[in-house]
């Protein structure tokens, strides 16, 4: 019974030390500068609403944005075949041609 008491006290002390060690803020990390936030990339500021193009809804817009296509000019520079092959959302090159995504993007990019 005497050994069990020491074992229990040691276990509780170990839990307390582990808790203090895990919740302790690490002083080795440099402090973040709070005066100026990190600047956003220029591409994020120039994002066009691709849903204005007939046939592109929110799902296709998110898939295009995931590919790095954020503007009408970037979409206008794509080929329907390459675009259909790279999009995560299911779309065929024939649909892109039929709905004239590239042509609409070229008109809006001007």
Characterise this structure.
The chain is an all-alpha fold and 110 residues long. It has a domain at 43-109: DNA polymerase, domain 1 (Orthogonal Bundle). It is 56% helix and 0% strand. The protein contains seven helices and no strands. It is rod-shaped. The termini are far apart.
Compose a concise summary of this entry.
By secondary structure, the protein is mainly α. The chain has helices spanning 2-23, 42-45, 58-66, 72-76, 80-86, 93-98, 101-109.
What helical percentage do the residues reach? 55-70%
Outline, from the CA principal axes? rod-shaped
How many strands, what sense, and barrel or not for the largest sheet?
Answer: none
Unreliable residue stretches: 33-40
Strand content: under 5%
Give the count of helical stretches: 7
User: What Rg is obtained from the alpha carbons, in whole angstroms?
Assistant: 28 Å
Structural class: mainly alpha
CATH architecture of the domain at 43-109: Orthogonal Bundle
> In whole angstroms, how far apart are the ends?
85 Å
How confident overall, as mean pLDDT?
Answer: 82
CATH-defined fold name of the domain at 43-109 = DNA polymerase, domain 1
CATH class of the domain at 43-109: Mainly Alpha
H/E element sequence: HHHHHHH
């Amino acid at each position: 019974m005497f050994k069990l008491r020491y074992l229990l006290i040691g276990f509780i002390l170990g839990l307390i030390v582990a808790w203090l060690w895990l919740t302790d803020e690490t002083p080795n990390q440099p402090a973040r500068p709070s005066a100026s936030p990190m600047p956003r990339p220029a591409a994020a500021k120039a994002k066009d609403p691709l849903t204005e193009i007939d046939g592109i809804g929110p799902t296709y817009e998110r898939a295009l944005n995931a590919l790095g296509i954020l503007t009408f000019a970037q979409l206008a520079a794509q080929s329907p075949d390459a675009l259909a092959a790279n999009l995560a959302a299911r779309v065929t090159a024939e649909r892109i041609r039929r709905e004239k995504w590239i042509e609409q993007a070229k008109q809006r990019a001007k």
